[in-house]
Amino acid sequence: VHIHIKGFVEKEQFESQRLLGGIDISVPESSARGIDITFSRQYRGSNWTLSADAGGVWANHETDSRYNPEHLSAGLNSTACTFGNMGHWHYSLTGSVLGQAGHTDSKSWSRYKWSSTLLCGWKHTGLSVSYAEGKTDGDATWMDFYQMGGTIGTIQSEWLYSNRLQAPWFPAGALIGKQFSQLDLKIHLGREMPLIIYGSDISLWSEKPGRSERVAGCEWQIEVPICPILRLAPMVLSTGVAYGLKGEIESKWRGYVTTR
To answer: What CA–CA distance (Å, rounded) separates 50 from 44?
Structure first.
């Protein structure tokens, strides 16, 4: 069993957000500080892996509107994967389930999320299809709804931000809702050309029908190795462009650069 303990202090500046279902809300600048703990266990077979993470997070949010809620939650995340190859051909099927419960500002909530990914490839190229769904129940605040936009860094709390849906072509928290569904299609062109061509369709909603954001684009990934002299950890630098097919950025281009 591996134990990871992480303390964090971070600050975010949100743009205008909308609670899908037609309710407008104003989201202020927010900062959070707290501690995150995770217990991890992994099992391996000749053509399968199974991992389980259990943990929780305590955090105190501070906003410029004097709304300073306290967050406390615990959860369990399990991932199973089976894989194989036939000559130069290879495949993998991965499934993941997350269950989490907690309270924010003395309001109790629960959350679940599941996802599955099928990858088929030849040598270093491949085609992957992913689908995910999730729902937040209880007396949740907007902070605990699913939020689309931005990315999640490796130094951020995975339990505090388990409601984030990564979409770097949007700012963090651009759209929110109690429920979501996400379908992704990716073409991986290999190590010699670390380019990913993708399409993504994300829908969020609350009590009323919500909206979908559909984009297509490409992303170039560069692995930056560890640099002991400058004491820099290894990271992945990604730069990409996305074209809106449906939703708020329909017929518009968006560019982004991220690190993790």
So the answer is: 6
pLDDT tens sequence across 77-129:
999 999 999 989 999 999 999 999 999 988 999 999 999 999 999 988 999 99
Rounded-to-integer distance, Cα 193 and Cα 216, Å: 19
- Given a contact cutoff of 8 angstroms between Cβ atoms, the answer to whether 159 and 185 are in contact is no
Q: Are strands 30-44 and 2-12 parallel, antiparallel or unpaired?
A: antiparallel
**Cα Rg of the chain, angstroms:** 19
What pTM value is reported for the model? 0.87
Compute the CA torsion angle 201, 166, 134, 179 (nearest 10 deg): -70
Partners of 140 in the β-ladder: none
Residues β-bridged to residue 60: 33, 70
3-state secondary structure of 30: strand
Other CB atoms within 10 A of residue 46 CB: 6
- Model confidence pLDDT, tens digit, residues 168-195: 998 877 888 899 999 999 999 987 778 9
Q: Is 144 helix (H, G, I), strand (E, B) or coil?
A: helix
